[in-house]
Amino acid sequence: MVADRAFALDRHLFEPTDSACEARIAAIEPDAYVRTRNHLHGQVTRLSPYLTHGFVSVPDVVTRLRQRHPLPMQHKLVYEFGWREYFQHLWSRLGDQIFTDLRPPPGRDYRSTVPDDLRQGATGIPVIDQSVRTLYATGYLHNHARMWLASYAVHLRKVHWRAGADWMYGHLLDGDLASNHLSWQWVAGTLTGKPYVFDSANVARYAPEWASPHSAIDRSYDELLALAQGETDLGPDSDNAPKVAEPALLAAPPEQLGDASAELNDETLHLVHPWSLARTSERRVGIIELDFHARHPWSARRWTFVGERMAALCDQLLVGTQQELGLRLRGRELKARATHNPSYRELFAIASVQTSEEPRLLDNPGRACASFSQFWKRTTSVDTATSTNRD
Ligand SMILES: Cc1cc2nc3c(=O)[nH]c(=O)nc-3n(C[C@H](O)[C@H](O)[C@H](O)COP(=O)(O)OP(=O)(O)OC[C@H]3O[C@@H](n4cnc5c(N)ncnc54)[C@H](O)[C@@H]3O)c2cc1C
Q: How far apart are CA 136 and CA 245, in angstroms?
């Protein structure tokens, strides 16, 4: 049984401001990161909401860190930034293919929805139920907790990774279609061909407060792998575990941020979208494209994070469908940061927006790299033979 224990993180952990982002960068201790990053309370950066929404870029962060610490390319933190860039690379090269199985899954029958007991954090397995509660309460989860939650959902409950990824994406402040959906594929085994399974000893080591002995995950690795390759949905461990209400996922901002009919003040416009929220000195117009959110709704928490930042950066905000925004923007001189997000890319094409690429630390090879180690080797010349384990 899971009691409603204190959440692993403060509920107000992420403020959508430069000072909060700066404080995160200033607090990074690369050596401590290496030693502790796998632990639930380890010294990870928690920069992901700021990186996803473009407050700051990976090369900016690395440059700033190098002013304080030696940070060679083979440093574990640079390597983790590399995973973000690898997933963006795959998205740019594979497009919508990243939303389909990139390799055959280990099992055959998967559900197309996330079962209620899992959504309600009521499986009766402490590590799973606490992860769901933390996700809902903070919009953030430690990497290990994401891996455990995804692995349990896909391999022991037979949820198709795509259904799990869509669900988690909506609740994360850092939800990024490439990092999220490709990480779910990584866990499912459809990215690399090897499913990720974990056992209760792994949880006891890295998250002792969420230890889950005598539960569905208290099995040998071979048993867990056989379950991953089989068809059985183990069902919840308990039928009367306490439930948590899932926050609503919203296809539009909960408060009126702006509309697509507003008069535009200037002929030349610098557009800001939810993935390009860096501060600049130019006057800017924010855009929110609603067709995208009809397919990928967000929690109110994430809308607030993005909405407050856009309000702070922009003179005007336009919120509308692709067609409405296209009509409003057409015929002007428009500039924006590029994104791989397909809806925004289409809008930029319709409105002839001139885009500049997001700064990258590593190159973006012309053809999709089949594995992270291939990508890393090709872009850094550093061999990863000894460090291919994400865990
Ligand atoms: C199932 C699942 C879903 C995920 N969904 C997302 C997502 O929607 N958005 C997202 O940014 N990350 C996602 N990740 C990757 C990773 O969990 C988060 O980037 C990380 O936990 C964010 O916390 P942090 O900033 O403290 O990370 P740190 O450990 O401090 O890492 C620093 C930065 O490196 C990048 N990074 C680190 N690890 C990874 C990784 N494995 N994959 C990609 N980038 C990485 C992130 O930009 C992160 O902010 C997911 C992982 C899994 C297993």
A: 9
Predicted confidence (pLDDT) per residue in 4-30, tens digit:
343 445 556 899 999 999 999 999 999
* Residues with Cβ within 8 Å of residue 186, at least 6 apart in sequence: 192, 196, 390
pTM of the model: 0.95
Evaluate the CA torsion angle 92, 94, 97, 101 in order and state its sign.
negative
Residue 19, strand partner residues? none
What is the distance in A from the centroid of ligand 1 to the CA of 183? 9
Cβ of 187 closer than 6 Å to ligand 1, yes or no, is yes
Q: What is the identity of the amino acid at 134?
A: T
Domains defined for the chain, CATH in brackets: 18-96 (1.25.40.80), 116-229 (1.10.579.10), 249-356 (no CATH)
Q: Name the residue at shortest CA distance from atom 49 of ligand 1.
A: 48
* 84 touches ligand 1 (CB under 6 Å): yes
pLDDT band at 387 (very low <50, low <70, confident <90, very high): very low
Nearest CA to ligand 1 atom 17: 143
**Residue 254: predicted pLDDT:** 87
Cβ 29 under 6 angstroms from ligand 1? no
Q: How many residues does the chain have?
A: 391
Whether residue 83 has its Cβ less than 6 Å from ligand 1:
yes
